[in-house]
UniProtKB/TrEMBL annotation:
Organism: Pseudoxanthomonas wuyuanensis
Record-annotated membrane-spanning stretches: none
Protein name (database record): Predicted DNA-binding transcriptional regulator YafY, contains an HTH and WYL domains
Record keywords, A-Z: DNA-binding
Molecular function in Gene Ontology: DNA binding
Residue span, WCX domain: 241-315
Alphabetized Pfam families for the sequence: HTH_11, WCX, WYL
Organism ancestry: Bacteria, Pseudomonadati, Pseudomonadota, Gammaproteobacteria, Lysobacterales
Domain Helix-turn-helix type: start-end pairs: 6-61
Keyword DNA-binding: yes
Domain WYL: 144-211
């Protein structure tokens, strides 16, 4: 148990104690020496101004009437919790393309300071936490802030949207429901007032976002999950069917451990192959992930999805037939 954990545990023991706690019991519960118990008690009393009273003979406790009022100041977490928080903070900063850096900078400095103090070093080696973004798209920071604000403040949002598939520009007024980080990019799930339907928007294609005064229309969580999470991928919608994909024994070692969808069905076959079934609505993203495995993946059904994959492979092969 490290110092931070011992101080936190010591505080909880003394706060809950109705009678003085002996040094021997503190040694047992904290898993440390008698000298360490005395050092921690002194730190708790002198540095953190805890109302510790007692002695080595009768034991220690918090002063009557002060126990309920006193709490440890600042942020007190175990080393494991701090490591996890720091890793999550680094992930947000580095995958957000700098958008979140300013807002999270004070938290990062606080966490690094606590870890450095805990380790007894001048500076915590944050560079040891490595996060590598993959295929993240550039965001307009002003638009991202407007989108995030509208989601959290529950306000309607107006913006121009440039569809990536057609490059068409349209004006949208929506009630934001959720903002989602998916595959190193941000997406907005929202109720489109003109189209009267749920839509998902890539935030990097949002231009001129403006938070409106009108309150957002909230949809039921069950309805959101049914529409947005029932099929494969980020642009899901209601499932139109199930895809069955067969993976080679080589690919099975990877695919069997992957989460493609919350409702997926998978099974190992006697010959080492792996059969995966997932619900889908829009085939584009599913095909992209299947073709990523090349010759180690084969779509069994439905036939229309199998033909789409075959056409894509033939088109790709034709690129290599040119001189």
């Amino acid at each position: 148990m490290d110092k931070i954990e011992r101080i936190t545990a010591l505080h909880r023991i003394l706060k809950a104690a109705r009678y003085p706690v002996t040094v021997k019991r503190l040694q047992e519960e904290l898993g440390c020496s008698r000298a360490t118990v005395y050092r921690d008690l002194a730190y708790l009393r002198d540095a953190l101004m805890a109302p510790v009273e007692g002695d080595g003979e009768a034991g220690f406790r918090y002063q009557a009437g002060e126990s309920e009022r006193f709490e440890l100041p600042g942020l007190w977490l175990s080393s494991e919790e701090l490591y996890a928080l720091l890793a999550a903070q680094q992930l947000l900063v580095r995958t957000g393309g700098g958008v979140l850096s300013g807002a999270l900078a004070p938290l990062q400095k606080r966490i690094e300071g606590l870890l450095a103090d805990h380790a007894g070093v001048a500076q915590w080696p944050v560079e040891r936490v490595r996060v590598i973004p993959h295929r993240g798209r550039r965001l307009d920071e002003a638009s991202f802030r407007a989108v995030a604000s509208a989601v959290l403040e529950r306000k309607q949002l107006a913006f121009e949207y440039r569809a990536r598939s057609t490059d068409e520009r349209t004006r949208r007024t929506v009630s934001p429901q959720r903002i989602t980080h998916y595959r190193d990019n941000w997406y907005l799930d929202a109720w489109d007032h003109e189209r009267r339907a749920l839509r998902s928007f890539a935030v990097d294609r949002v231009v001129g976002a403006r938070v409106l005064e009108e309150p957002a229309q909230d949809l039921d969580n069950a309805e959101l999950n049914q529409h947005l999470a029932s099929s494969y991928g980020i642009f899901s919608g209601e499932p139109k069917g199930w895809a069955t994909i067969m993976f080679s024994p080589k690919a099975a070692r990877w695919v069997a451990d992957e989460q493609w969808h919350s409702k997926q069905e998978g099974r190992h076959l006697p010959d080492g192959r792996y059969e995966l079934k997932v619900p889908y609505s829009v085939s584009r993203e599913l095909l992209m992930d299947i073709l990523h495995y090349g010759a180690d993946a084969e779509i069994i059904e439905p036939a229309v999805l199998r033909e789409q994959a075959k056409s894509l492979l033939e088109l790709a092969l034709s690129n290599y037939g040119r001189k």
